[in-house]
Amino acid sequence: MTPSDPFDSLFPPGALKDVLSQQDKDGPGHGLSSKGRKVWKVSELLDHLNNIISMEYGRLWVEGEISSMSIPPSGHHYFTLKDGRACLRSVLFKTQARDLGFSISEGQRVLCLGRLNIYGARGELQIIADTLEPWGEGRLTAAFEELKRRLAAEGLFDLVHKRDLPNCPNRIFVISSPTGAAIRDFIRTACDRFPGIPISICPSSVQGEGAPGELIQALEFAESLAGDQDVIVITRGGGSLEDLWAFNSEELVRKIYSCKVPVVSAIGHEIDFTLCDLVADQRAATPTAAAHHVLPSRQEFSQLISGLELRLSRAMDRLLASLRQELDGLSLRLRHPGRDIMEKRSRLDELERRLVFSITHRIERLWARNLMLSQRLYANSPAGLLALNRQQLDTFYSRLFQAILSALKAKRAQLAEHTARLNAVSPLACLDRGYSLVYHEKDDILIKSSSQVQRKDRLKIILSRGRIVCEVVDTDGPETK
Predict the structure, then answer these.
(1) Separation in Å, CA 167 to CA 174, 189, 459
(2) Any residues with CB less than 8 A from the CB of 119 and at least 6 apart, and which?
(3) Disulfide: which of 186, 219, 225, 276 matches 287 by Cβ 3.0-4.6 Å?
(4) What is the pTM (predicted TM-score) of this model?
(5) What mean pLDDT comes out for the span 259-270?
């Protein structure tokens, strides 16, 4: 290629159809040069590429190893998927991470289902994951162990929740494939051990994607028909972990846990193990073993009945002998009823006599008490009490009047005596003997010395009768300063 080759020759035909189109008519906002080349904004280009990636790839599976994983407080999982030559940024949001059946960790190899996207802030290609699955032979085992751990933490496998099976059930509900060997083995063994027990078959798929839903429906149907002494058996033949995966369904496990009827799990062979085995009230290694668990042996049951009959007969003989001995003892202690009647009649006559005497004596005592109370009531008649109280009131009134007069007389004499004493020491009494009191007219201060006044001060002189206002002309003492 020479420098004169056109720009389009660098790409396959049509590759730049959406990149180099439209001329200056697109306007200055698209940064078109005079040569007609379209210049993209970075955000526009990334949005355009995201649309192309979305239409071209949609949702896709990517295999890789987890590295550089971080979980901020938001709960989202940020990590890198890598292989020997390249790496891809990935994000698993909190909601999707909560629905995973296992915990992801650094260095784990996984399958990631998601959509490709270019993160505009850094211009990096990333995958937004919808879900993750463990990769390789152990992915189902890892999912099994994770679900087992989570359900065990919730207490679904605790022995305290497991119920005992009835000794001889009234009816057995078998949930299984109607064409499988497992149900034939169970029915054959059940008929051999204890024929006559009704067995109801609830058909369901035991393998495949729709199996968990059908198993749950069959379990709900059996539960709706079962009584107190009935049993539900879930069974199928052996197989790989993938074949038995329907019996590790979390929904099925929770349904068995909440079932009100005892459930026996007989899934696979002895070496096979599922979560249904852990949550069931009893686990049987095989369908044949399940029949042995659920039904008693006819021969053992007959022997048990014979033994119970013998024990019952011996117990009845002992009870009858004991009752005969007790009856003999009671017969010796039994008295003739006529004798008791005579004694009771004599006792009744005595009680009647004592009752009549007691009633008569009681009436006499009440009569005497009534007479005494009548006399006391007459003696304490309200009219007599009123007259007596009125006489006492008159006496008290006379005594009170005399006491008041005496007290007033004594108080008057005492008042006269105190008045005379007060007048004897009163300064006003001296005025009758020619003395007088001199005050400053302005502030009513008593004048006791000539030093208290000055010339032209106005004085007020209080006499025995009347007063005089005068002006100071002179004093015989020194003038006040």
Answers:
(1) 18, 17, 136
(2) 89, 125, 126
(3) 186
(4) 0.42
(5) 88
